[in-house]
Write a structure and sequence with these properties.
With 279 residues, the protein is of the alpha/beta class. The protein has a single domain, classed as Alpha-Beta Barrel (TIM Barrel), CATH 3.20.20.370. The protein contains nine helices and 16 strands. Strands 1, 4, 5, 6, 13 and 16 form a six-stranded parallel β-sheet that branches. A hairpin with a 3-residue loop joins strand 14 and strand 15. Helix 1 runs parallel beside helix 8, helix 3 crosses helix 4 and helix 6 packs parallel to helix 8. The relative contact order is 0.19. The C terminus is likely disordered.
């Protein structure tokens, strides 16, 4: 089994704000304006932890967050970069398609300007993939041909090709040991609803020749959506939980793989149509 790890770098505890396209941050007493301090605290620590265990990763960066954290972004030089919008826009809700494509291009340009590198993949904010994603990505003018904005159940957890020559690398989902629905995102773990070992249980549903894709948010190391900003000690515990999950999977035989290598594998697995391109 291959193991692909992805991380979203966006504003702290992002929330949709009624009446506006751009996302805000959970109100901690000063309104819902975007905050970046939790992501800023955790970013370099996260990168160092991944380096220490030999885990490659792709960071899906929100453009405005990259600009806000430009002094910290150098720690990602050894990781792959993707795009996560500019302002964590909901690209499928009350936004014209051309405006949505422009937002992704804005994010792409911002990340490229800050890092000096060309992002090579896309993940839609909120995992709300635009319809006809291959045509949508062409409309952005970014040249991106890899998407990771879908979920796939454990037995079907393989990268696959979408119409329009886009490689889809879906995040794994399935059931936990108690029988409840479970996502490959570490959200539930960081909110105290799942222990690290549940992700090893999820991995058992992925075929030996499949690809387990897990995901996290940088800000979630430092901040709980429910209870607010964590202490330094508790933040380190959350980072240790991530390390524990990844090390346990590698110790059990999972083979770390980069997102780009997984995308290359996708063209061997024709997938479902996204209702998009006929060519």
């Amino acid at each position: 089994m291959k193991l692909v790890f992805t991380v979203d770098l966006d504003r702290d505890a992002n929330i949709e704000v009624p009446g506006q396209t751009e996302a805000g941050s959970a109100d901690r007493g000063e309104g819902t304006a975007p905050r970046f301090s939790s992501s800023g605290w955790a970013l370099a620590r996260y990168a160092d932890m991944l380096d220490s265990i030999g885990m490659p990763a792709a960071f899906f960066c929100e453009g405005r967050t990259a600009e806000a954290l430009k002094d910290e972004m150098g720690c990602l030089d050894r990781f792959e970069l993707g795009i996560h919008g500019y302002d964590h826009e909901n690209l499928t809700h009350r936004i014209p398609r051309a405006e949505a494509a422009a937002a992704v291009r804005h994010g792409f340009d911002a990340v490229k300007d800050v890092t000096g590198r060309t992002p090579s993949a896309f993940r839609a904010p909120y995992m709300h993939q635009p319809k006809a994603v291959a045509a949508f990505l062409r409309d952005t003018g970014t040249g991106i041909l890899t998407d990771s904005s879908m979920y796939a159940s454990g037995p079907g957890s393989f990268p696959f090709a979408l119409p329009g020559y886009v490689a889809e690398v879906p995040v794994t989902e399935g059931t936990g040991p108690e029988g409840g629905a479970m996502s490959g995102y570490f959200w539930a773990m960081h909110e105290g609803k799942r222990p690290p070992e549940d992700y090893s249980f999820l991995a058992k549903s992925v075929p030996e020749d499949g690809t387990l894709v897990l995901a996290d948010h940088v800000w979630h190391i430092r901040e709980s959506r429910a209870s607010g900003v964590r202490s330094d000690e508790d933040s380190q515990k959350e980072l240790d939980f991530v390390s524990e999950v990844l090390r346990a999977l590698m110790d059990a035989g999972a083979e770390p793989e980069t997102l780009s290598d997984a995308a290359s594998d996708a063209y061997m697995n024709p997938g479902p149509s996204d209702g998009a391109d006929s060519e």
